[in-house]
Amino acid sequence: MADLVVEELSMRFGGITALDSLSMTVEAGQICGLIGPNGAGKTTLFNCVGRVYQPSAGSVRLGDVDLLALPAHRIAYAGVARTFQNLGLFPSLTFLENVMAGAYSSVGGGFLKSILRIGIAAQERELEARAHRLLEMLELDRHAFSLAKDQPFGTLKRLEIARALASGPRLLLLDEPAGGLTDSEVGELSELIDSLPERFGVTVLLVEHRMAMVMGISDKIVAMSYGRKLAEGSPEEIRQHPEVIASYLGGAA
Ligand SMILES: Nc1ncnc2c1ncn2[C@@H]1O[C@H](COP(=O)(O)OP(=O)(O)OP(=O)(O)O)[C@@H](O)[C@H]1O
Fold this sequence. Notes:
Keywords: ATP-binding, Nucleotide-binding, Transport. By secondary structure, the protein is of the alpha/beta class. The chain has helices spanning 42-49, 95-107, 110-118, 120-137, 153-165, 183-200, 211-217, 235-239, 242-249, and strands at residues 2-13, 16-27, 31-35, 57-62, 65-66, 80-82, 171-175, 203-207, 220-225, 228-233.
């Protein structure tokens, strides 16, 4: 069943049509890669789904929830979490604190109630235990008390994913997760991302320029050009799609 449903989404910036009536779906537990040449509208689509931009027309639904009807700050409660190209971490906090900061966005409305019920100290302990478990699952537990700013970029990319997972999302938006990584780091990160749907029950939407990585881990790919969907299908179908090859993949296919 489709988990994420985007229908006839359009976004204009002044005279530029960045998204032109684009529709797509992602099934629950799928990894969907968005590809396309520079300026195709991938980031714009990503930012409309993540409620950074308010689209000019169209709809975005996650399960039964109309994401565009929510105020942008409620997006985490609806089950959407994201990572950022340039890391959305707090450099002067420890790994553990960064992950706990990610978890706070999920306690939201129930937070006050649970404080009244179990007290703030117990709530903190619960979040801390959850953050420790996540660090362990992402093989980052040895860094729990390291400051984020003291660790290499590749390790911080994993921490960024741990932080996003801490809110218990249903949809994870990954914005160029492999940007700035070495080839061996990309391999490790691909394995991690590939394992996320099964281990954490998330659906993943991924924007990434490293073609081998997208082709290797995506269940489906949406190829975009000039704000429109050029093709949608399995990596194999996309690799062989004449229009995709002509407009974008060329030698990379
Ligand atoms: N905030 C903005 N203001 C004005 N124009 C924008 C804005 N964001 C994107 N655009 C324009 O919308 C179009 C789509 O851009 P977008 O960044 O979504 O493409 P992209 O596929 O993500 O490209 P890239 O691979 O280079 O990141 C481009 O023509 C871009 O110049």
